Amino acid sequence: MDSLDLQVLTEARAWFASGRQVWLVTVIETWGSAPRPPGALLALRDDGLVVGSVSGGCVEDDLIARVREGERVGKPSLVTYGVSKEEAARFGLPCGGNLRLVQEPLQTLDWIDAILERTARHELVARRLRLDTGRVTLEPASRGEEFSFDGQTLRALYGPRWRLVIIGAGQLSKVLAQMALALDFEVVCCDPREEYHLSWDLPGTSFSKAMPDDLVAELQLDPHSALVALTHDPKLDDMALLEGLKSPAFYVGALGSRGNTAKRKERLALFDLSPAEIDRLHGPIGLHLGARTPAEIAVAILAEVVAVRYGVELVQKKDGSAMPLVGIGPGVCGVSQRP
Prior knowledge:
- Strand 8 and strand 9 form a beta hairpin.
- The protein has eleven helices and 16 strands.
- The two termini are 39 Å apart.
- The chain is elongated, with a radius of gyration of 23 Å.
- It has helices spanning 3-17, 58-68, 85-90, 110-120, 171-182, 194-197, 212-219, 234-245, 258-268, 275-278, 294-309, and strands at residues 22-31, 41-45, 50-52, 77-81, 98-105, 125-130, 136-140, 148-149, 153-158, 162-167, 185-190, 206-208, 225-229, 251-254, 325-326, 329-330.
- The protein has two domains: 3-158, no CATH class; 162-330, Rossmann fold.
């Protein structure tokens, strides 16, 4: 569940607390070219005001019209759009796409308060909704889980399902962390250097002064974790990479030119890493966008991390960059830092 859905819950909470009627609308199933995935969330107020999205806009318009015409859904119910080609076209669902939703009245703030509190602590929490009773319960969740609906029970996840570990607390790291938070990553930064960690002041992130390799080993990176090394100091970057490349993290990359990446791989080969593990290293990190400023480089790095996460084959790469195979297709990486 992305950060937009937490914003939806926050706004819905404020509306309900002010005395308005509020309905939550969740995408539970899609076919064809429906524009929003299962789990996408929208909140609808009794005067037609909405926050969030379940389609490209036309379905939202219909939901708004229903409320403004006096429709008041009193219990969780199913709504389907796009059953015919004509209806799909009307509601902006191209190629015969179909969209199935659950619409439910908001009846209490207890579970929203709990979700907002727990996700603020970087916890991942699952919400269960029983359609027959409208009962909501919360339970712990793990990163590998997905949104589900079995016909009677909706189970949605809230909180960061992905984690980004950043080695180094320089200017690039700060910009990268801010962007990663917007993409709903849990962000952990590590830098034992006093002159750097004293200036790290980004809300919503975690910071460690431990040695990077110790922290990476302690975190036990999983397939929903990414590691980026940005210090340019081999004593810090290489040691973190040693641990990261042995982990199941879906992305491990290091800042530097193609020449520096080749030298780094030679150093890593002196340790207990197999050739296959070393070949997992993305370097130089990021897509080849001609990036020069810290913000531009951060965009290039996160664009590649997201693409690798989804197994997308990348072609926007600098010739000679390391190109590990990732996901369902070959991924490549490399910001064009000067050699």
